[in-house]
Amino acid sequence: MGMMKEALMHPEDLYVLVKMKRAAAQVEKQIPPDPHWAFCYTMLQKVSRSFAFVIQQLGTDLRNAVCVFYLVLRALDTVEDDTSIPEDIKLPILESFHRHIYNPDWHFSCGTKDYKVLMDNFRNISTAFLELGKSYQEGIEDITERMGKGMAKFICKEVETVDDYDEYCHYVAGLVGLGLSKLFHASGSEDLAEDHLSNSMGLFLQKTNIIRDYLEDINEIPKSRMFWPRAIWSKYVDKLEDLKYKENSTQAVQCLNDMVTNALLHAQDCLKYLSDLKDLSNFRFCAIPQIMAMGTLALCYNNVEIFRGVVKMRRGVVARVMDQTRTMSDVYGAFFEFSSLLKSKIDNNDPNASLTRMRIEAIQNSCVKSGMLNKRGCHMYRSSPAYNSVYIILALLLVSILFAVLATK
């Protein structure tokens, strides 16, 4: 029903929504027959549908390695996220997790829902890991060890300064960027990217998620999860949780805009990393999440709803990004469009207005200097035009027919 409602609200997205629905159905049919690999790809769809889609862009060997890499780190993250685990139990698990991936008999029950299933059946991940090539195994082990130790460090340490914030994001996401670059290189499809570019790819995504997930993290039971650095939020409120109260809405939005402005620092590195990729499948795999991060930042900026509920890109825009991201021209165009949307929301009275505008203009200058903006064949973001009732009724009938056809296949 969500997809049908969105098609009615934005009929221009109808074609790409149906196309992505069919593509998602195809992904579900491509589950490998081996039980452990079937578990891996089934779990991938449950813990991240968007990632399960973009990973299909990759060749088989690299796809398997990235699938296992993602699930290993997702399991590690589940241990870190479970605030019910006592520290004296959690810390040794995080620090030794890289050794557990070699042991098909190891598992640790924690997390909830699909994440609990992942942890209870971790032997399937280990079995799949042991079938990967040695270079893939070494890359995954190295990043898992570094990430686990970094997570353990921040279990015992608050995110106080902006440097702390960058360090934490490096451990939980920048290392993912470094790991993926290692896997690409091990596959023979790419040159080894510079570490600072790989790191920025992870930080841009992680900071976007931290901004978007403020309310979910601050309301975490039994203990809040606080990732916004004190150096930023303390300029606006006395306690991080004060941002969610309506009487602090003005300060909350100013703090939010400060956080978004910080995240924008990594956008140009991401553009450089993407422009250096040689393989189209690797490119699409990397580019789609980065575009969605830029779009999400544009939606979050100056948006008090971050402190009230869920803010995310609508399905039609996500489907358009997934379907139509093919070249660097598409990436530059999407970054330019979303940065323009963000720029249009800058309030001159915001304490960081000048800095935000400067960073947006730097991103846009990179897009313009590429010389590729005029080569685009699509637009990622469109304002909703007005449609009369007859058009909406026709769209409803068409959507119903298409769903009926899909249901028979």
TrEMBL record:
Gene Ontology molecular function, alphabetical: D-glucose transmembrane transporter activity; squalene synthase [NAD(P)H] activity
Name this polypeptide is given: Squalene synthase
Cross-referenced InterPro entries: Isoprenoid_synthase_dom_sf (IPR008949), Squ/phyt_synthse (IPR002060), Squal_synth-like (IPR006449), Squalene/phytoene_synthase_CS (IPR019845), Trans_IPPS_euk-type (IPR044844), Trans_IPPS_HH (IPR033904)
This protein's pathway: Terpene metabolism; lanosterol biosynthesis; lanosterol from farnesyl diphosphate: step 1/3
PROSITE patterns registered for this protein in UniProt: SQUALEN_PHYTOEN_SYN_1 (PS01044), SQUALEN_PHYTOEN_SYN_2 (PS01045)
Cofactor section: Mg(2+)
Name of a matching Pfam family: SQS_PSY
GO terms under biological process: farnesyl diphosphate metabolic process; lipid biosynthetic process
